[in-house]
Write a structure and sequence with these properties.
The chain is an all-alpha fold. Helix content is 82%, strand content 0%.
């Protein structure tokens, strides 16, 4: 028979794959547009500033996503009754998400001081 408990971890891996794929496609698309813009500016003889500041809001978005993934994986394994696996497997994405959120907090404070 089919084991339905296998669906929850498989679904989380598919979801993570989807987020990573969408993120990389968006980055590639934005880099292509930036390269076209730079090439057009160079053809016209305009100076192009190369340094760009990252938006702290992107770190907030990443932090929310990773934290929720960690929480959902943990809850899924706790519902399944495997608390030890929940602690092990959910701790990594949860820690990454908390790291992104704390970096967002620090970057936001530094932007306010400027």
């Amino acid at each position: 028979m089919f084991d339905w408990a296998f669906i929850i971890p498989l679904g989380s891996f598919v979801m993570i794959y989807g987020f990573v794929k969408l993120g990389t496609e968006e980055k590639m698309r934005s880099r292509e547009l930036l390269n076209k813009e730079i090439m057009m500016a160079l053809e016209k003889g305009v100076d192009v500033p190369l340094a760009q500041e990252k938006n702290p809001l992107s770190y907030f978005r990443k932090g929310i996503i990773w934290t929720l993934i960690g929480l959902f994986v943990g809850v899924a394994f706790i519902i399944d009754g495997d608390v030890q696996a929940a602690g092990v497997l959910a701790s990594v994405p949860l820690a990454v998400g908390i790291g992104y959120l704390s970096y967002y907090k620090v970057a936001s404070q530094q932007n306010e001081e400027k």
